[in-house]
Amino acid sequence: MSGESPSPTAQSQGSGGGSGDEPPSGGLPDLPGRSGGRGGTRIVVLGALLFVAMAAIALLPRLLDGDGNTGPTPTPEMIQTPTPRPDDSGVAAAPTQSIQDAEHVVCIDAGHGGWDTGFTREANSRAPAILEKEITLGMAWMLKERLESEGIGVVLTRPSGLAVNLFNEDVNGDGQTLQDSQQAGDRDELQARINICNDAGADLLISLHLNGFDDTSARGYEVLYTRAPFREFGDRNADLATFVYRAIGTAYDELGFNTNPRGVISDDELDATLHNLGAERHLIMTGPGIQNADFTLVPSAMPGIVVEPVFISNDDDAAFIAVTDNQRRLVDAYADGILTYFQQYPQWP
Description:
This protein is an alpha/beta fold. It has two domains: 35-73; 105-344, Zn-dependent exopeptidases (Aminopeptidase). The protein contains six helices and ten strands. The strands form three sheets. It has a six-stranded mixed sheet, with helices on both faces. Strands 2-3 form a two-stranded antiparallel sheet. A two-stranded antiparallel sheet has the order 8-9. It is globular, with a radius of gyration of 27 Å.
């Protein structure tokens, strides 16, 4: 199943309220030497109130969380891949896009994000809960680090957990947004990502996803691309997909992880019912441009692939990808395939 298809599943965590206990009742205790007159009582009462106020002020920061809400913040039962630390404004820091002097530039797209969680897995006794968008973001930053260590410039379409089309703009100019339909919003989101890759003048596009399916026995890895004649660089798409696919297989062999090699697949061979964004039988990120009566899409201007290394709906695949070291080994495989591509095709276009 292509990771470009939107997944409307969303989860929310409720926050616990206060205990509801009433404060203890009763008068102030007698103090030694206290005068029984009205003035003495008033002084004692004022002093006690002052003491209570000072104690409340001292305890206030411990009673409030960072958002000003009382009580502890619940922690979701979710795999959390390390992602960029936010700056003081709470927004994830922008990536260092070292592309000016780089011989090659790769655009890395972390699939899904924002309201779109991608495929969502619930926890069971064999594997934890997983959100696709969390794993893809962490792996995108890992891949960025690896490629930059090889002297390759990198641009990220989604550097944080936020959607790329954050302000719900009509990016593809069809007069429709997410407010009109989910598909219109998805088209704008994907067009925003394509525009980032095109504006960067990237030589390659790699879109990171995780697979999922209703049948939990489905598992394995596959790399998707758009072939010729649907794209003028379809042969390069096929070669890049093959190089990365072989590198993933090598990584699994080295790790002793037995799973199903599902192949290098041209997107026109996929089940058309899985692609409900109006992009014929093609993935939007790697497919051709679209000029329909009701919407348009400008295509990516460079060879590209969509990588699906596991099915997180499968317990064994999910338990594997939940381990950060395994994510990093797969990322190394992606990088190895990309480096092989640049050896084969040192220039683009």
